[in-house]
């Protein structure tokens, strides 16, 4: 099972995401044991001290909220870490996805940003099925028309992000059983090693994690087995 750190960008800094309330997110260094800076390159360098991560997820919160974007910074990171695959959610609707020259850029399409029905997705896209307060977020057609889904599916439970409530095991189990041909990625609520072990037993392919990496509940030794 792959571990993928999450970088939430807001106003040029990495922030600590809690329960999807983006207006209240604070600079990550205020809540982190592994970094004393909230600059993206410093945060990533400190994360890589814990494990040689092969992929990193970036949420451009300004872009998602329609308040500018971090395209310049993201391009700098793509060039600085060419060996890392960056999964980028910038809140684009499917028809407006940005294109980047870098081969290590992977587009995440979040359902919360989709106002039109789904159609055929490029196989290289990553689909994030977003849930707020356990309700599907975005145009409902994206959740029902699984024939258009790409290979990689993120199950993003936004109200569990940074909450210490634990993953939504029920939803993840349901998707894992119903879509055995998909790569299922858990996001939201992962607290500690026991959660990782349970997700692995369920057959989850990867997990997105931020808080448990920064608060010290997941150590380098814990991550070594994944």
Structure in a nutshell:
The protein has 226 residues and is α/β, with parallel strands linked by helices. The chain has one domain (2-223): Alpha-Beta Barrel (TIM Barrel). It is 25% helix and 25% strand.
State the CATH architecture.
Alpha-Beta Barrel
Largest sheet: 8 strands, parallel, barrel
- How widely separated are the two ends? 6 Å
Proportion of strand residues: 15-25%
- Helix proportion: 25-40%
Radius of gyration: 16 Å
Mean pLDDT: 91
| Structural class based on helices, strands and sheet pairing | alpha/beta
Poorly predicted runs: none
Shape: globular
Report the order of strands and helices: EEEHEHHEEEEHEHEHEHH
Number of domains: 1
Largest sheet, order of strands side by side? Answer: 1-4-5-6-7-9-10-11
CATH superfamily: Aldolase class I
Q: How many distinct beta strands? A: 11
Number of helices: 8
In the CATH scheme, the class would be Alpha Beta
Which fold name corresponds to the CATH topology? TIM Barrel
Task: Please render the helix and strand layout as text.
Layout: E1 2-10, E2 13-16, E3 26-27, H1 40-50, E4 55-60, H2 61-64, H3 71-80, E5 85-89, E6 105-110, E7 126-132, E8 135-136, H4 141-144, E9 152-157, H5 169-178, E10 183-187, H6 193-202, E11 206-209, H7 211-214, H8 220-223
Parallel strand pairs: 1-4, 1-11, 4-5, 5-6, 6-7, 7-9, 9-10, 10-11
Antiparallel strand pairs: 1-2, 2-3, 7-8
